[in-house]
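1st attempt posting a full record on here, be nice pls
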Amino acid sequence: MSLQSPRTLDDACDFIVDCLHATAPTQADGYPLIRTPNVGKGRLDLADVYRISEDTYHIWTKRAVPEPGDLILAREAPAGNVAIIKEGEKVCLGQRTVHLRPNRAKVDPDFLCYFLLDAPQQGKLMAGETGATAKHVNMKDIRVLELSGLPGLKIQHAIGSLLAAYDDLIENNRRRIDLLEEAARQLYREWFVCLRFPGHEHTRITKGIPEGWKSKTLGDLRFEVRESISPESVEPDTPYIGLEHIPRRSISLTEWGRAEQVTSSKHRFREGEILFGKIRPYFHKVGIAFVDGVASSDAIVIRPIDLKVHGMVLMTVSSDPFVAVTAQTMREGSKMPRADWKQMQGYPVPLPPDGLLGSFESQIQSIVEQLKTLSFANHKLRAARDLLLPRLMGGEISV
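the predicted structure (as tokens):
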């Protein structure tokens, strides 16, 4: 005798558990604490995750211990996002998240994750019983969400596996991006912080500057771009990068919106220019643009004076020491602290001879080109997945 198809989300799950309504104490390492920004569309984003101790982990998982195949739903910002926990991810819930354990005898976990991300379910979750779009999802509306027209388990598994394959490829590319960025940071640290550049064994250091190098400042190597532009003067689909699109501690600007989504004047940027988030600079939001577009006025657009110092400028302004100094010298704004561009320009930069500089630039530019290729590949994969999702869920495409 086959099981009856679940009618509600509560019926499809072994349990649906709300998070603890308290702020967990965090630390430098430990178990990932999943907050709403860590809940992506299908996958958890652990790139900038907060962490907790083992004792805190046991307290925060006393209602239920998250396991692979479980789902985490964000109730706010970004409301409605759902991600599945994959093998090897031992996490716990932060505030405004919900823990769901699909009953595998009734529903495939991957399928349910993408089903909940499909437009009809998102609309129901956000409207709830009021019928008006809200900025958060209520627990009651989550439990009573109707699951009408679910296919059989075999088809669910086929659909879930197909869509999950796209996210697996995206995640693999993201890990490659992380490795490439770390290689670039390590190269910069070795050469320009630790001064262990090729030939350093035979080079005299005087007042912190290797012999044959020049003592420069950031202001000597770049200038700020202030090309203001109104949204109506650019095409609606022009890429728009706001602070929300700039990841922390990553030099790859892989996400962007559209110019039609903004109404106030913005700054134009070109491919290869560097965006530095000036609001609360200690958030470490710095990256290189892979497209032409418009940026938030809360981002400083930096253009190197010459291609031969492009990588040098990029790695300097995205380095931990530079961000730390910028955070120490930030100006107190009317609402929140901002980076002080005048102070930033005075940051000391040791410039090596042309031969060494060319070698460094060649290696950094090779990494940047690979980052760009992987970023565009992920854009295409997401677009294909998002195109397939409603058609698979609506039965327009058979599997």
